Amino acid sequence: MKIIKIFYHMLKDFNFFSMRLIKSFYCKLQSFYFVMCGMKPWAIGYSHYKVLAIKNLLSSQDFDPFFLPKGFGYRLDERAVEYPWFFSRLPSGDGKILDAGSVLNVDFILSHSKLQSKKVFISTLAPESKSFWEAGVSYVFEDLRNSCFRDNYFDWIASLSTIEHIGLDNTMLYTTDESKNENHANTYLQAIREYHRMLKPGGVLYLSFPYGKYQNRKWFQIFDGPMLDEIIEIFKPSTHTIFHYKYVSDGWEISTREESKDATYFDIHTQSDYDSDFAAASRAIVCLELVK
Question: Going from the N-terminus, what domains does the chain have, and what CATH number goes with each?
Answer without folding.
Answer: 76-291 (3.40.50.150)
